[in-house]
Amino acid sequence: xxxxxxxxxxxxxxxxxxxxxxxxxxxxxxxxxxxxxxxxxxxxxxxxxxxxxxxxxxxxxxxxxxxxxxxxxxxxxxxxxxxxxxxxxxxxxxxxxxxxxxxxxxxxxxxxxxxxxxxxxxxxxxxxxxxxxxxxxxxxxxxxxxxxxxxxxxxxxxxxxxxxxxxxxxxxxxxxxxxxxxxxxxxxxxxxxxxxxxxxxxxxxxxxxxxxxxxxxxxxxxxxxxxxxxxxxxxxxxxxxxxxxxxxxxxxxxxxxxxxxxxxxxxxxxxxxxxxxxxxxxxx
Amino acid sequence: xxxxxxxxxxxxxxxxxxxxxxxxxxxxxxxxxxxxxxxxxxxxxxxxxxxxxxxxxxxxxxxxxxxxxxxxxxxxxxxxxxxxxxxxxxxxxxxxxxxxxxxxxxxxxxxxxxxxxxxxxxxxxxxxxxxxxxxxxxxxxxxxxxxxxxxxxxxxxxxxxxxxxxxxxxxxxxxxxxxxxxxxxxxxxxxxxxxxxxxxxxxxxxxxxxxxxxxxxxxxxxxxxxxxxxxxxxxxxxxxxxxxxxxxxxxxxxxxxxxxxxxxxxxxxxxxxxxxxxxxxxxxxxxxxxxxxxxxxxxxxxxxxxxxxxxxxxxxx
Lengths: 284, 317
Fold this sequence. Notes:
Chain A is an all-alpha fold and about 280 residues long. In chain A, about 80% of the residues lie in helices and about 0% in strands. The model of chain A has no long low-confidence stretch (mean pLDDT about 90).
């Protein structure tokens, strides 16, 4: 009887610890969101979207940083995602079980978790050193390198989900594989591939480390891709660590903007995925 | 008809070859990127490697004025902050994974799972400012004084918690890292636990085991490899994490026995000093740090991959 009480007590203790760990994890997320909202909302105003980043001790906005982040994220996706989608297509269709594909899959998963600051150093070495100056293009390339593994992985997974019968039907009509891929598989996997793009955008739009020494930063409005460009993450980094109240407020507002957009992107990606999986498992 | 067909077929064949080659080139580009990262870092690190030789990784000195650099302090900081993070995040991640797979009411399973995954989506710079402005003051006021007071009479442990409570430092960086890697560890472990056949668990319950006994004697042994893989994946993230650490580490190139003292890590040294580095040797030393980080994280992540692959599990996105 005593033994039984001991076992029950042990069970209760460990299960409560497990519940406690979950509550602690959720509390961290809630605390971070609460801090962002309470500090960030105070700094929210239309000036954020109409004025440039100010000199120390002045009021201003984040327009140039928002623009720069938008441009570099867009360029990063435009450069990175076609490579990721094509490479994912190779792994899922042409080289499915080849040795090369196994190696590429492995390396891609390593790149997916690799520290982003290393990618920043890589682009610094091959672009910034060669051209002799920091530039928005270098920043976009660094983001593109980070976008490739995400889009590659989702594309491969999504193509694998397409029912084999669709592929066979197309082949039976005499279509070459490329025709099957472009006209049958891509449309069938479209929402999955779009999810991959959303996840990739969410991943790269908050990245700071790879932009520090590629795009650098710019206090002023600049649309020149060949020159340093302002961007939200680096502005947040610089302003948050500054002693000026105005800069810190802008940093919090920027942090709120960036987090909310990334969370919206991730949630929509997850909703699309959930709908997709429900469709597949209901035997369509 | 036949003529049109053969012309059409020839054209289709050309398209086929172009498309196939395009996908192959894109796939090989992934290998080229990894190779390019390795080669460019080695080239950038070469001046420092030639100048300092092996002593680069055994010396603590970091002095831009006399142009002398050693990587020991950043390596120490990287390893210690990651170990603190793992010590906190592994048990917590294990608990969350258990809760999600064994205890959670089905209705809450998805929302809580998504919330944990969202924690992984929050950019690292956000963890950085949150750590600096919210977590560090809390640790400084409540946790660190308590640690100092209670540790000072225990020999050995008192060395770890010595000196004034700065708020920022190695310990705080470890805390922030723990919160950051927690979702990765929890998500991987959850996926591994989900692969345990229900029949095995039911057999355990049939013998009269408690939930915890089933978990400890059936679920854990069955998913051992995956658990280790998940832990190493988290470790790989912790070692390379940059912005969150940069905010709260204090950026001091020295090794202190106290975990409350400011320190530095490889990635935060690079983030802080790279754009301000003047002189080839300074820049090259920072790139050499990057190369070290690349080698360390590559090894850890590759090992994690190899383990997870044995289970046909892959890194969570």
